[in-house]
Amino acid sequence: MAKGARDVNLAVWIAAPPAKVYRALTGGKELAHWFVVKAEADARPGGRLALTWKGIGTGEYRFLKLVAGREVAFSWEKGCRIAFRLSRQRGRTFVRLTLHAVPYAGKELDCYTMMISGWTMYLCNLKCVLERRWDLREDQPRGSCIA
After folding, report:
1. What is the pLDDT of residues 5-50, one digit of tens each?
2. Which of 20, 39, 50, 107 is the most exposed place for a label (fewest CB within 10 A)?
3. Tell me, what DSSP letter sits at residue 22?
4. For residue 147, pLDDT beyond 70
5. Under 8 Å CB-to-CB from 82, ≥6 apart: which residues?
6. Where do the domains of the chain lie, and which CATH numbers do they carry?
7. E-assigned strands of the chain?
8. Is the pTM of this model over 0.85?
């Protein structure tokens, strides 16, 4: 890992089977429901992942590792790598997200803070979309899906 970079772990429980969570992480149509406004996903190791954000544009990434229902990893900004590990526990899916080699020193501190806060929100949105079909990027209905 580069000097001035660190790994960050985030996690969430989702009341959905691992196969459904896996599809949400690898399918273009599914990614657009909780993460971006448009996605093109060639879900195979080395496959292209094009993600389009509202008002920002499109970023190009690559799937690095795929194990159906268990693991998804892809390249990310600034040489980082994103890895999701899924496990079925107590009738729910435990999702562990690791942001690998996130720069945090000097001028990169803003990037570090934005990546952590952004991915925390997206994990919450993934949970809400899969459990209740609520997209936190839009008006939030009454009640909460974060608990």
Report:
1. 788 999 999 999 999 999 999 999 999 999 999 999 999 999 999 9
2. 107
3. H
4. no
5. 73, 74, 75, 76, 97, 98, 99, 100, 119
6. 5-132 (3.30.530.20)
7. 5-14, 38-41, 48-53, 57-67, 71-75, 81-89, 92-103
8. yes
